[in-house]
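[job 4471] stage=fold_predict status=RUNNING
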Amino acid sequence: MQLNLGQHMNDFLVEVMGFSKEFADIFDETLIALLMIAVVTGINYICQALLVRIIRRVEKKRWSRMLIKRKVLHHLLHILPGLFLFLLLPLAFVEAPKLLIFSQHICIAYIIYSVLLTLNGMLLIVLDIYNSKDERRSHPIKGVIQIFQVLLFFIGGIIIVAVLINKSPATLFAGLGASAAVLMLIFKDSILGFVAGVQLSANDMIRLGDWVQLPKDNANGLVEEITLNTVKIRNFDNTISTIPPYTLVNTSFINWRGMKESNGRRVMKNIKLNVNTLSFCTPDELDAIRRRIPLMKDYETRLGEIPTNAQLYRIYIGRYLNAHPEVNQEMDMIVCQKEATEYGVPIQVYFFLRNKIWKEYEQIQSDIFDHLLVMVKEFGLKLYQYSD
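[job 4471] inference complete, writing structure tokens
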């Protein structure tokens, strides 16, 4: 039955303003519908206010803070005004069934959209709970959550469009199946990112906080974020490199996590000696070395052996590293001579330092090689120095 207010408005428009009966019906029914929208909007604000009061009483609860942060209850309450309006609209549009159907479809689309936002908030809460565990932060699931978000809004969007055009969602999905190639082209990066993300996670190739190096992409720094389409790396010069996940699968990169989790960080350098300064040591020279260098005072040659000064220098390097507190004695240590070249005779020094912090590591190894370079002349040797 038509509302009295609507009937009076209808009579006024027809008899006083001279409008047609059809226009008057549409006008007054639209006006009543707008009043209903205002009423349900007011109801929504009242519900939101009550929600705020309830949440303040339980705001110390962890789950309530998450619901507030992700606006789950906020979006859930938006379903109520859409539902109320859907039920009240038949009282407004009595003489305009087409407007009634159209407006009810809009209400349904609004309700579906509110449900989508609520479900999206729940997915984000799942992500927050997962990331709150320290042992799980090294295995991020943000990319997986983003996959569910894409599917959620994709399917929800199809259903909303189907409601607005009054078609079956199954019909639209069937039509999309025919255009699968176009969809694959549109979502190519997301599909590749998802597959690469699964490979990276399954093989434990990269984690948040890893130090990674990609020479081809000029990226060298710490992994800050792993998403469906990107891996964000903060380089050591504070620039940001954004790398697609499938790039990490298709190309080689260095992950320094193994070094950080091990007991030492490797040092491998060459000390190049002038080949013209290598010689056998006489007994007097050997005695002089024992007197001058404390680490060599107990050195004894094997029967019949005549050591060279380069050999004694290598022995000294080994003893010096064995006595150094920062060198990890439980890991490999090698001091050897490499093949002579036109740039001298390389003495390769290979060992591991206990301290893996970049700044301190560089300082310690620099101090060690400063000492070794200075000690060259104590054995009658000279470093190779290029000259024209």
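[job 4471] summary: The radius of gyration is 38 Å.
[job 4471] exit 0
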